[in-house]
Amino acid sequence: MAITDVTVTAGTPLRSNRRRVVRRMLRNPLAISGLVVLGLAVVLAVFAPWLAPHEPTQTHLDQAFAPPGTAGYLLGTDDLGRDVLARIMYGLRASLHVGLLAVATSLAIGVPLGLMAGYFRAIDALISRFTDLVLAFPFLILAVGLAAIRGASLGNAAIAIGIAQIPGVIRIVRSETLRLKSLDFVAAAIVEGAGDAWVLGRHILPNAASVIIVQATVAIPAAILGEAVLSFLGLGIQPPAPSLGTMLSDAQQFAARAPWAAVMPGVAIMLLTLAFNVVGDSLRDALDPKASRR
Amino acid sequence: MRRYLLGRLWQSIVTLILATIVVFVGVRALPGDPALALAGEDRDPESLRAIREQYGLDDSLLVQFWQFVSHAARGDLGQSIRTGESVTTMIANALPVTIELSVLAILVASVLGVGAGVVAAVRRGRPAEWAANALALLGLSVPNFWLGLMAILYLSVALGLFPASGFVPFFTDPVGNLHHLILPALILGTGLAAVIMRQTRSSMLDALSADYIRTAEAKGLSPRAVIGRHALRNSLIVVVTIVGLQLGALISGAVVTERIFALPGFGKLTVDAVFQRDYPVIQAVVLVTAAAYILINLLVDLLYSVIDPRIRVRGDA
């Protein structure tokens, strides 16, 4: 899980400013609490097999609808007596898995296309048509189509979310490339005879890294919410494997009898995305020279 | 202006054609023989051939594509392989529900978002700004289908304030219709409200420090007039922009919201079609969504150039 990498690499593009960015982040108590929640979520997800008090799919029919606080079932159980805490831990695994896979997909395709669209005028229009085309399919519709063609699975959900996020990446990288291309140091490199690949890889990409990272911190929570939605609709992970979304759709049927089974997974999703959004916001502020004004 | 409009229109048509090709190819990439699916239990080779002939499945792909496009252009989107009902009718019945839900959600989100954004900008550094910011962050992070579940559980079931599910057509019972839709619209609008609030706040902050506002203040206009007449005007652009950008999220959100509140809209049609592997319906639903999306984006861009003349000049929005 590379979540921690996101923050660690935050300073890389602005090598000289890295410490200042980190310092600004650490001065912000909200950012610190966000990082703590993220760290906790990652630990719970990665070490779920060792930390979870029960198997997430293990049913205990004699313990069905146990309220939170029941001995051995800290967050209670669902209609089949499955431990809500264990299912949340494994659900976090699915959430982070899809969040990272989807964003990695969108970056792997979107960053090169965005760089090329901003750098080579000739293919800009072509890539714009591609963005328009992808944008014509809202992510859920894309996911529905993909589920119809390839079947519903966690991997296909991640692909659908990743594809839907490509246009956003292309737009941001493209406009940053356009901006950087007009700067003197890039012109100087071109005058010195540097090849296109060198200029893009050595001068433009490293300087565009901070916008890409900020974009990723927005895209990961969006992808996590997307996974929850798809799994909720039955288009994502397949039962009995737990996901926070499927837990909610299961719990919908007996929500009046066992509200905790519906409340807890939602709180987990909310805390996770809230932490990402808080970290993303403060990272953007820390990277933004105008930040003091906002 | 005219060149911009024509260019934008042409661009939309190209996108629509590409989207149609993608949908057509996508449906042909579906696993399994559609003739077998249509035949159901009847696997007799003779009837399979008849089905292939009837649906033109033995024609070349180009002919099939032309059939598909020319039928779609005439409003004939085929028949459901489950119910035999005309897909066009099914969509025509479902679409008004979704449109009403979305429009209500946009209204709710605009009022809440612009209001909170203005308060946050004007009450800079006070508890009101802090509260508005916190609410926006929460609105961005809360999964709206979960919020919907909670609302049903606590507002509808426990307190009985709203119906938990179901739908009444507007023309049969306008009050009942709104009573059924207001909670779903609120839920669907939360994320949108959060985005609008943040954008309104930041554009208000920009505007409030701009020279023309200082001029207006120096002229002796009351703060209320300054904010209302000058600064707030920009928020209309903000709302239009955000709605344009968030349209995909809104459509996706509507699908889920309908599912939770059991509204007989487009989203329910879509999800049911996937689970029943009703390919003609899936194909039509995807195509109609793409077409609607392209059309609305076109309208948003046009509206945009009406509201903000600078965009016409730039030309490449």
What's the SSE blueprint?
The complex is a heterodimer of chains A (294) and B (317).
Chain A: H1 3-8, H2 18-27, H3 29-46, H4 48-51, H5 84-119, H6 121-135, H7 139-150, H8 154-181, H9 184-191, H10 196-233, H11 244-253, H12 259-287
Helix pairs in contact in A: 2-12, 3-5, 3-12, 5-6, 5-8, 5-10, 5-12, 6-8, 7-8, 8-10, 9-10, 10-11, 10-12, 11-12
Chain B: H1 2-28, H2 34-39, H3 45-55, H4 61-73, H5 87-122, H6 127-141, H7 144-158, H8 174-208, H9 211-218, H10 223-231, H11 233-261, H12 266-275, H13 279-307, H14 309-314
Q: What's the shape of chain B?
A: globular
- Seen as an oligomer or otherwise, the chain set is heterodimer
Instruction: Output mean pLDDT of chain A.
Output: 83
CATH topology description of the largest domain in chain B? MetI-like fold
The CATH architecture of the largest domain in chain B comes to Orthogonal Bundle
Name of the top-level CATH class of the largest domain in chain B: Mainly Alpha
**Distance from first to last alpha carbon of chain A:** 33 Å
Pairing-aware structural class of the strands and helices of chain A? mainly alpha
Helical content class of chain A: over 70%
Radius of gyration of chain A, Cα only, in angstroms?
Answer: 22 Å
Largest interface, C-beta within 8 A? A-B, 43 and 51 residues
Spans of chain B with pLDDT under 50 lasting ≥5 residues?
A: 313-317
CATH fold-level label of chain A = MetI-like fold
Helix and strand run of chain B: HHHHHHHHHHHHHH
Give the helix tally of chain A. 12
Strand content of chain A: under 5%
Question: What overall form of chain A do the CA principal axes indicate?
Answer: elongated
Question: What is the count of structural domains of chain A?
Answer: 1
